[in-house]
Amino acid sequence: MQKKWWKEAVAYQIYPRSFMDSNGDGIGDIQGIISKLDYIKNLGIDVIWVSPIYQSPNDDNGYDISDYQDIMEEFGTMDDFDQLLKEVHRRDMKLIMDLVINHTSDEHPWFIESRKSKDNAYRDYYIWRPSKNGKEPNNWESIFGGSAWKYDETTDEYFMHLFSSKQPDLNWENPDVRRELYNMVNWWLDKGIDGFRVDAISHIKKIPGLPDLPNPENLDYVPSFKGHMNRDGIQEFLQELKENTFSKYDIMTVGEANGVQANQADNWVGEKNGKFNMIFQFEHLNLWGKDTDTGIDIHKLKEILSKWQTALDGSGWNALFLENHDQPRSVSTWGDDGKYRVESAKSLATMYFLMQGTPFIYQGQEIGMTNVQFESIDDYNDVEIKNLYRNKREKGVPVEEIMEIIWNTGRDNSRTPMQWNDKENAGFTTGRPWLKVNPNYKEINVEKELQDEDSIYHYYKKLIQIRKENAALVYGTYDLILENHNQVYAYTRTLDDQQVLIMANLFEEDSDFNLPASLKDSEKELLLSNYDNDFDELSLRPYEARVYLIK
Ligand code: TEU
Ligand code: CA
């Protein structure tokens, strides 16, 4: 397997709006990020992924871009960005940006032109269609609910938007669009950034003819993923993108590849045929986040994660993550954000962090930040949450039922301001925060975590350290053990004569286990655990995790 800097790296995702406000307007900004770079460096981070900071009307908080080559006013100026890049590099870290090229904002000049007339030079930069039988051109549902089409009376046609109605999809079939995007990508790479996380990239190829999808349940609109997620023909676009941009630089690229199956991994991330260095894939997230509240289906979890580990073993690379700005907090969703918050956060960390791949930590995950339960929908900001609330209310769903869904799965769970200390607004802002701070900030904050050597923060810091000290945890093979165990996720990482054993009890009940003979009889050195004594050779305590070096 080829050695690469981005395989040895640990990455940290910043959602700038919620990270740190430097000027008291209640909105996080670039100078705020700069003021916290030492904190990120001290954790042991190598690569920072910043969610979009380009000009945007913020309908989807920056994922709706109106100018790819200018900085969002609320976040600062291009000079601030240049300073951020310099300060990141000065600390021997790297910076990757968020590349959103499936769609733009409807306030982007291209779309403002495109909607003016049917024969406008930019008309085919987007996907326009006349109505069909007085309705939308097809029955596709937007990922944010409702129709995937919005009527525009100026030209009496509809335009497609897989996401919010202010995020019109770009027409990737149009070579002019692709060329303009490649020029923009190279402009950023020439500024010296170290790569990209590529947003919603598995959605760019739509099924030819944009036909109605089968609708056996006679829904108003049909979930549209089958019409646009990882469709045949997408690889040609991705190959052209890579050849015209990424392949010319020593950078790190991670594709957000919803809907890609493990058996397709080689085409996406293979050392020879891959288009990205690694991808975020989401199969495992359906096990517990958006739709279920029954905790982890551990057998499915093992099956899916192991499938990716072995599918890529040697041929490609994974991006390992539990959280991001679209997911609820993992300790609330998978673990226990009550009695066993600390133990379960550490257990989950151990389970995912030491697999084969580049581990990503999302801001606040390293201090065990939890979900939040705001009483009123007015306390929420996310367009996906607002659409969900409106659509369900229109169908007469009781408010309490909708709030439960939002509390369990809403994206604002991971977007409440970073909790720096126990002062007003958790030290995030001296103004009124754009989104309320989680009320538990007095108990859960960076300052408290830094002072407590048994904190989740220090546990992540040790995880990062042992990953750097043991090459098997980067380049070693992954072998699942205790495959059928109902509570414990255990695996080994092996490289030449170095072997590391990772075990995590993912539940709050004690759990017996029986290691395979080869491991049971070997001498072990405990590298890390979320308990500090009385290690029973045959059982694990609630959420107990252990990492052993096999001698
Ligand atoms: O998300 C793309 C994506 O796959 C969505 O289905 C995402 O999983 C969903 O929003 C989760 O509820 C990316 C960004 O991560 C997301 O924040 C943006 O809203 C979206 O693209 C549009 O840019
Ligand atoms: Ca600010």
Reading side by side through the largest sheet, how are the strands ordered? 13-12-10-5-2-1-15-14
* CATH C-level name of the largest domain: Alpha Beta
CATH architectural designation of the largest domain: Alpha-Beta Barrel
- Please give the largest β-sheet: 8 strands, parallel
CATH topology of the largest domain: TIM Barrel
Q: Helix- and strand-based class?
A: alpha/beta
Low-confidence stretches: 289-293
Distance between the termini: 24 Å
Small-molecule components bound: 1-O-alpha-D-glucopyranosyl-D-fructose, calcium ion
Radius of gyration: 23 Å
Strand content: 15-25%
- How many domains would you count in the coordinates? 4
Find the CATH superfamily of the largest domain: Glycosidases
Rounded mean pLDDT score:
95
Choose one word for the global shape: globular
Number of helices: 18
Would you count the extended β strands for me?
Answer: 22
Proportion of helical residues? 25-40%
Main location: cytoplasm
GO cellular component, one term: cytoplasm
Family: Belongs to the glycosyl hydrolase 13 family.
Pfam family, one: Alpha-amylase
